């Protein structure tokens, strides 16, 4: 049916039927008048240099030497990747399961805060108490200058007496 519908010459049809009867593969190109391939004009360049060798249309097995000569059997050298600290990874996953978030980021922030705290020396507790008492006395002096001293004097003295360690 397809042979009749196709626009093939009688020679081409006969040639294809012969290939099918013999069990050969069908040709990629079938020349219209003869089984000979037309001779192309002399090429200006060498076809062997520009075109790779053409594979035949017939399926065939390659010899083992041809297969081994290619790069198919060459193995790449194993290149190990950088190793992970498995204990650190375990702790990180435990923290994720326990708290629901990655604590590595928090540790980084905590180390930054700790270094800042180490740089700033903590004032002595005695100095803090002296400063608090001094601030209250200054506040009381300001209130007395404004005429509000009686109102705040008892409150300030009570606060000063309560400042203890």
TrEMBL record:
Domain of life assignment: Eukaryota
Annotated InterPro entries: UPF0193
PANTHER family: UPF0193 PROTEIN EVG1
Protein name per UniProt: EVG1 protein
The species this protein was found in: Pluvianellus socialis
């Amino acid at each position: 049916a397809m042979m009749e519908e196709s626009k093939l010459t009688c020679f081409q049809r006969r040639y294809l039927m012969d290939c099918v009867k013999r069990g050969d593969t069908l040709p990629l190109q079938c020349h219209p008048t003869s089984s000979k391939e037309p001779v192309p004009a002399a090429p200006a360049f060498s076809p062997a240099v520009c075109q790779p060798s053409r594979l035949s249309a017939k399926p065939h097995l390659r010899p083992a030497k041809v297969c081994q000569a290619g790069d198919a059997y060459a193995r790449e050298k194993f290149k190990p990747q950088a190793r992970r600290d498995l204990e650190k990874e375990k702790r990180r996953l435990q923290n994720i399961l326990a708290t629901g978030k990655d604590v590595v980021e928090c540790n980084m922030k905590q180390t930054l805060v700790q270094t800042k705290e180490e740089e700033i020396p903590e004032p002595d507790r005695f100095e803090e108490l002296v400063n608090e008492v001094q601030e209250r006395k200054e506040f009381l002096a300001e209130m007395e200058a404004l005429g509000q001293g009686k109102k705040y004097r008892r409150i300030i003295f009570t606060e000063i007496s309560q400042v203890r360690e």
